[in-house]
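Practice problem: predict the structure.
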Amino acid sequence: MALIDYKNVEVRRKEHLVLKDVTFSIDCGELVYLVGRVGSGKSSLLKTMYAEVPVVSGDADVLGYNLTSIRRRDIPYLRRRLGIVFQDFQLLTDRNVYANLEFVLDATGMKNASERNDRIDDVLHQVGMNQKSYKMPHELSGGEQQRIVIARALLNNPEVILADEPTGNLDPETGEQIFYLLSEIARQGTSVIIATHNHAMIDRYPGRVFICEQQRLSELP
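Answer:
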């Protein structure tokens, strides 16, 4: 069974039609890119997957949740099974890296301090930031902050990671490191969906490519 399965989905932002007749499915461990012009619907489509933007019509299933009928109280449980990577990091600036990650585990119900510590160590090691847990966000470079954001996305062992322009604020060399990291995560079995304009990195780390244009989504050969 596909992790994400959309059939004839319509995406709207208020009264504005963004995408129509969206049909695609994504299986375990796939690396998927969403490309298209600014405003073409990439971010809106990603946001439907974690129920930030409602699905107006069609059939949309993410990790067993029907997005056309999902109850508000179930949305947090869906999001716990997803990892979300934002372009603008959205780290808590008043606490260090460790406390940023601990905050997420607290919120999702992991009360055992030893388990929390082990999990934080695991994800920081996975993104190559295990020596930076004491740092405040402002003490980190943009690339380091994005690695912490990816670590945060990995905390709950997600089945899918959604990354919206994850290298948009980074220099090319740092951006390539982030693409490599995300491609490795996909290679290890977590599906990764990246909205991006960085076609050079798509060539370097190939995956499935979908383009949003003229209010439609189509897969490139």
